[in-house]
Amino acid sequence: MGNTPSRKGYEKQPEKTTLFKKEPTGITYRIPALLYLKDTQTYLAFAEKRSSPSDSDAKILVMRRGSLQNGSIQWSPSQEVTSAFLPEHRTMNPCPVFEKNTKTLFLFFICILSNTPEHRQIITGRNKARLCYVTSSDDGQTWSQAKDLTESVIGKNVRRWATFAVGPGHGIQLESGRLIIPAYAYYVPFKCFSFPIPFTVQPHALSIHSDDFGQTWRMGKMLQRKSCECEMAEIIDHEGRSHLYCNARNTHGHRVEALSESSGAYFDKPRLAPKLVESRHGCQGSVIGFPAPEFVPNDEADSIGGTTSPLSPDTQTWLLFSHPTNKTSRRDMGVYLNRSPLHSSGWDQPWVIHSGPSGYSDLAHSEDVEHFACLMECGKESELEQIAFVSFNLSDVMQTVDKREKKEL
């Protein structure tokens, strides 16, 4: 698929590589997760393999490896992560994270009993989900057997959870070494005759974290606002302090944001992000933090010599966010840049990287370089047609957005 004009002017879009494609038999691939391994310059792309588009027909996780060779990415054939399962359960919501000290790759996921749909768990208040992970010490070439953390991490709290899930998308490791897995749970505040009172069960985002390289895990407190599927990023301010940022799905027309000064133990004052729109029922989105550049391209200088201009950012970190940009339906996948990430008003207008039906996505950053990748659900008639990979540079995002804003002045 070549570059095509977007609905917001005639902006070039990055070339797509299809990694997972809906099959004539009805087999559908959904819920992308993407991780970049710096040491081996390798991308790991994960998805759910389903016998139909329905959540209840999810079966197993699949993955592909993308190795950087001679300036291009060579992708391996798709393979099933066969150990990521529990008997009589279906596997969903891939959420990988890499622990840098022990060089261990964790792949979190949930297992749902049989084909029990999410809405049935919410109506009955009876959770059928399990919190699990597998690990790999060879960058995803082989995997351990699944470990079930439900009892040790969630414990009795699950009695008040109608259901829960991780991510979907990637987890992160903070500068302190803490591993963060984004998650959400449908909390049951009131019951009557052992059933939830109708319309009182709502989702709340939270973190699951480890301070001992993934040997043990704990969960933080829920956001005190309706918030669903989420991802998190670390923001480092000018004084070197860490702020954990959460960006979550919502149904009130805008994304929910929150900051934690306790590395995910709890989040303060969740708020709506006025510049990040949601469609009526919301959609998953992805966020990553990366070092703010010391210099940025100067458009006028580019035309005569390609020089740069110094930059004084508000923080040492910028954020990048991907999500469908249409207010009414899942269409037009956009990438948003935030150069003042401690302020919800800091988001730029989006650069549309796919015009047309778009769904879930996951972003990755090639550390030490200003290069990014996005794995996204997209298509011509439906977002369920394929999961595609695109890559781009920070300059692509900034120049597209800055040039459009100049035209609008």
Describe it:
This protein is mainly beta. It has a domain at 28-222: Neuraminidase. It is built from 4 helices and 29 strands. The chain has helices at residues 118-124, 150-154, 299-302, 394-408; strands spanning 17-21, 28-37, 42-50, 58-69, 72-75, 79-80, 89-99, 104-113, 129-136, 147-148, 161-166, 172-173, 179-187, 191-192, 195-196, 202-210, 218-219, 230-236, 242-248, 254-260, 268-277, 286-291, 295-297, 308-310, 317-324, 331-338, 351-366, 371-378, 386-393. The strands form 7 sheets. The chain has a 7-stranded antiparallel beta sheet with strand order 1-29-28-27-26-25-22, with helices on one face. Strand 14 and strand 15 form a beta hairpin. The radius of gyration is 20 Å and the shape is globular. The model is unreliable at 1-10 and 299-309 (pLDDT under 50).
